[in-house]
Amino acid sequence: MTPYRFLRPPLAVSLMLVAALLAGCSMTRPAENVTQLRVLQLNLCNSGMATGCYTGRSVEKAAEVIRAERPDVVTLNEICSGDVEALKQAMTQVRDGTVVALFQPARNGRTGEPYQCRNGQQYGVGLLARLAAPDRGHTVHRGFYPAQDPADPEQRAWLCVDATTAYLACTTHLAYTSATLALAQCSHLLGVAIPQVLANSGYQPTVVSGDLNLRHGGTPDVRSCVPADYLHRHDGGVQQFMATADITIESTSSIDMAGTTDHPAFLVTLTTTRQQDPAAQSHQNAQVGASIRRSA
Hints:
296 residues, six-stranded mixed sheet, 28% helix, disordered C terminus
C-alpha cells in the first residue's frame, strides 16, 4: 500500500496565505479606486454691473453655504477675482487637505484686457478644489471660446483643474445674448477643449458644472451639446452638471441663496470609480508573491 504524503506545515500555511491574499486582491483584474465628491455650483452675480441681481451680499452667503455643505469642489460664476480667496478661507475652515483657489477672467473683446467688475477687480469664473492627502499636485487648464458675440464686449472663458489621480473639474459661464452661441460654446468645451485636455494630460473622471444659459427642454436644448456617454443633471434652470460615465450621481439639491443672487446654489453628490494604475497593480501583485515566498 502506498503511504499517504501529508503536506509539511510550512507549505500548508503558505497555501492558506495564498488563498487569503487572493480573496482580497485579484491577480488579473485591476483594483478600483472610489472617491466621494460633493460639487457645489454658484452663480453669485457679483460684478456690480447686473443691477437686477447684484446685492453685494452673495459672497457672504456663499461662504455660509460652503461651511454648511462642506463641498470638495466649488464652481463659481459671475465673480470678482478677490471673491475666490474669501471663499477659499471658508472652505479651508471645514475641509482637511489642500484647497486650491483658481480664477479665470473673461476677456474684454474691445481692449483684449481682462474684463472688470465695477470695483476694478477682474471679472470671470473660478474654482475651489480640495486635494485629499497625499497631495499629488494639480494642473490648471483654461481658454477662451472661438465663438463669441461681436456685439458683447464680454468674451466667455472656461477653466479646469486636474487633481492628479483623482478627477478633472471644469466650469464655465456661457453667452447670454444668444442660445445658439451658448450651444456652440458648450459644444466646443465638451467636444474639443476637454477631450484635448484629457488626451494631453491623461484620462481622469471628469465633472463639468456651470451656468450654461441653456435649459433642459429649451430651444435649443442643452442636451444637444452633452456627449452621449455623459451623465447630466440640472437645477431646473440654466445651471447644468455633466459627468463622465465612470461617475455615479448619488443626489442633487438646490439650496436657497436668500435673495443674495438670482440663482440657487446647486449641489451634486457623487462617487467616482477608476481602475488602479496598472503599474501600481503590478507592484501590489509582486508584494503578494513576495509574501508567499517568505512564508514557504
